[in-house]
Design brief:
The complex is a heterodimer. Chain A has one domain (about 55-260): Orthogonal Bundle (MetI-like fold). Helix content of chain A is about 80%, strand content about 0%. Chain A is built from twelve helices and no strands. By secondary structure, chain B is an all-alpha fold. Chain B has a single domain (about 60-275), classed as MetI-like fold, CATH 1.10.3720. Helix content of chain B is about 80%, strand content about 0%. Chain B has twelve helices and two strands; from the N terminus they run H-E-E-H-H-H-H-H-H-H-H-H-H-H. Chain B has helices at about 1-35, 50-60, 60-90, 95-110, 115-125, 130-135, 145-170, 175-185, 190-215, 220-225, 235-240, 245-275, and strands spanning about 35, 45. A two-stranded antiparallel sheet of chain B has the order 1-2. Chain B is globular, with a radius of gyration of 23 Å. The chains are: A mainly alpha, B mainly alpha.
Amino acid sequence: MNRTVFLKLNYIFVLIFIYLPIFLMVGLSFNESKYFNQWTGFTLQWYEQLFQNQNILNALYNSMIVATVSTFLSILFGFGIALYLFRVKNRFTSFVEKFIYVPIVIPDVTMAAMMLVFFIFLSNYLEIKLGIATTIISHTAFNISFVTVLIGSKLTRKLRVLEEVASDLYANHFQVIKQVTLPFVMPALLASVILSFVLSFDEVVISMFVTGPGSTTLPVYVFSMIKKGVTPAVNSVSSLMLIFSLILVTGVLLLSRKDNLK
Amino acid sequence: MTRNKLNNILGLPGIIFLSIFFFTPSLFIFRYIFGSRTRTGKTSFDKIYFDSFSQLLDFNVVPIINKSVVTAFFVTLICFIVGYPFAYYIKKLSTTMKYFSLFLISIPFLTNFLSRTYSWKILVSKNGLITKYVSMFYDVSSLLFTDFAVVLGMVYVYLPFMILPIFTSLENIEDSLLESAKDLYANPFKAFYYVTFKLSLPGVIAGVVLTFIPSLGAYIIPQILGGSKSMYLGNFTVLQFIQASNWPLGSLVSLIILLFMVFAINLLFKFEGQRNL
C-alpha cells in the first residue's frame, strides 16, 4: 500500500506548504523581537504602531473608498448586464457573453498599462488627474465581469419559469424583479458584493499605475514596505489584510455552499 | 414591447461603461506601440514609429521572454506533479473531509495575494526556515532574490489554480467506468491511465493554462522574491512604464504577454472542442 502512503504524505505536505507561511507570519506579528528568527515574547505593540502611522491610515481610508464605490458601481452595472444576457438572446448578447470574460483573464500588467495610457492620453484634452477617481474606474472595469459571471451562473431555467408564472399572474416588470428575481439571486448578489470588495481591496498592480500621489491605496503602500524588507510592521499589516480578506472570502464560500444546497 | 425595451436598458449602462473604460483603453495600447519615446520621456505620435519593435532586440527582451517562459513552465510542472495527486487523494475522501479539504484549498485562492507572497519571503530570507533546511545541503546564506525563490513562490501562490479544476474533472468520472475496466482485466496502472487520467485531461489542461498564464505575466512575485535585478516579462513592462518612461516598448511587451494568454486559452478551447466531438 505504498501508493496510499504517498498520496497521504503529499496531501499533508501540500496543506503544510500552504498554511505554514501564513501562520508563521501571523505569529511573528505578535513577536516582541524585531528579528524574526528569535521569539522573545508576546506583544501587541506592532499593531499599536500601525494605528499611529498616518501614512497607513490614509492608505487604508483610500482603499476603503475605492473598494466601496467600485463595488457599488460594479454591482449596479454587472447585475444589469447579467439580467440583460439572461433575458435577451441575439448576436450581440452572445458576443457580450464571450467578451465579458476578457477583464477576468487579462494579465494585470496588461490591464494596468492600458488604463494608464488611456487616462494620460485623455488628460491631454480633459481635466483628468490620476487619483482616487481613476482607481475607482479601473477597479470597476474588472469587477463588473466578476459580478456578471457570478450572478449569471445563478440565473437558471428555474428562475425563468418562476418569472413567467409571476407575469402570468399579472405582475408588472418591476414587481417581477422585486418579488421573484431579487430574492432568487440574493445569495449570489451578496457573494458578489463581498467578492468585488475583496478583489478591489487586494488589487496592487493596476492601482499602482493609476493612483496619483496622495491617493495611494493600502496594498500599494504595503508593497513598497515589503520591497524594503522583513519588518514587524509589515508582518502586522500583512496579517491584518490577510485576516480581513480571509473572513470575507469564508463568507463568500459559505454563501455559495448554502446556495448550492438549496 | 415595453418589456423588451426595459430588458435592453438593463444591460446598457454596464455595456457603455465597459466600452469606454475597458474596450477603448485596449485600443490605446496599439496606438502607443507605434509611438516614439522623446527625450523628455513623453511619447510622440506625429507619425507611425516602429521604435518599440527594434528596441525588443536592443534591450535584450528575447532572453527575458525565454526566462519567463521557462520559469512559468517549471512552475506549471511542479504544480501538476504536486497538485494532481492531491486532487486525486481528496476525491477519495469522505464527503465531509472532501469539502473541508476543498475549503482549505479555496481560501488562499481568493485571499490577499500580497500578504501570502510576503509570508513566503519570510521563509526564504536569511535564517528563514527553508533557507536553514537548504543550507544543510548547499552552501547558501539566503535564498532571497534567487530564481529558486521565485519559482517556489509562484508554486505557492498558484497551486490552488491547478488543484481545483483537476479535482472538478476527477469528481465527474463515474466509478462504474473504473470497475468495468477492472472487469475487463486492466491492471490498476492501465485502468488509472486509460480511464481516470484520460478523462481528467480537460481539468489538467485548464489547470495548466490557469497556472501558466499568471506565472508568465507575474510582477509582484518576481519583484518581492527575485529582487530588482532579476527580469521577467511582468517587471520589465512595469519598469518601462514607471521608471524608464518608455511607454511604446512597455505597451508592446504587455501586448506580448496578452498574446501568450490568448494563445493558451485558444489551446484550451480547441482541446475542449475536440473532446466534445
